[in-house]
Amino acid sequence: MLPRSLRLICPALFSAATILCAADPTFLRRSLADAKAQPDELTAGSAGATYHPLFGAGDPQARHLKSIARYGELRVAPAGKSALVSYPAEEQIYFILSGMGSVICDGAEQAVKPNDYLYLPPGRRHGVVNNSSEPLRLLVMGFRLPGGNIVPPARQWMIANTADVPLQQLASHGPTTQFKLLMGTTESKRDKLPAASQMVSLFLMDFAPGGTNIPHHHETEEEIYFILQGSGEMVAGGGIDGNEGRHPTRQGDAWFLRLNTTVGFYSAAQSGGAHDLVLAVRSSFPFPPSRRPQ
Questions:
Q1: In what order do the strands lie in the sheet with 177-185?
Q2: Which end of the chain has fewer CB atoms < 10 Å from its terminal CB, N or C?
Q3: Are the C-beta atoms of residues 128 and 74 closer than 8 Å to each other?
Q4: If DSSP codes are grouped into helix, strand and coil, which group holds residue 14?
Q5: Which domains are delineated in the chain?
Q6: Is 174 left (phi over 0), alpha (psi -120 to 50) or beta?
């Protein structure tokens, strides 16, 4: 039998170990290649539509995301359609990965093609129809609107294409990466679509061979990187040098980063080859009113 002193210490050690094991991860990694179809409001009673969750709703670790309600891929077969859904306290973004079809919102129908992206305000009834002969694939992103949100969302739905957004350099991220600023809040003066509330920045990064956006962190925002094209090394969390952990990544991978997590990307593209492309989205962490940054 253990001495009495050890019997008293062991429960405390066990509790501490349990707390350590249960600690929230600083980042989560997913891949479209491994994402299994799960039941979802978009697929309930639908014809030829499947939803493949990456983060949030439908994912076992959804509780780790605070501002992001869902992030996954909707696949609609030729001549198929999703269900119509509405979320009164959630704004959504669709990004068309491949194929053609239409998005329906409150009875209006809008044709979509690859690299189109749309803002869908909270409360609007919307869904997707594939009236083509090829599969339609799109990213579905949803962001929770907390009570008393500071920036009101747009009332209308908006659409644009990445081809219509110019590339530009941002001084804080170095010369080897160019940005397309796709969408921001309704207060934005720099983004193509000033539309959102909780979602503060949707942008596309174009990496030159060997390029990087310089590892950094965000003190008040959660972030997701999606590798649209190419491969490289993702910076996520802390590494042995206390600054960055570098992880091999490739097209179809998605990374969720908690606020204050070191994040970045190093391109593996070769000179003369196609550039690496990363689609990223940031959303405001839902701090309680007493803790909101001023």
A1: 27-31, 253-257, 221-229, 276-284, 199-207, 177-185, 193-196
A2: C
A3: yes
A4: helix
A5: 28-286 (2.60.120.10)
A6: left
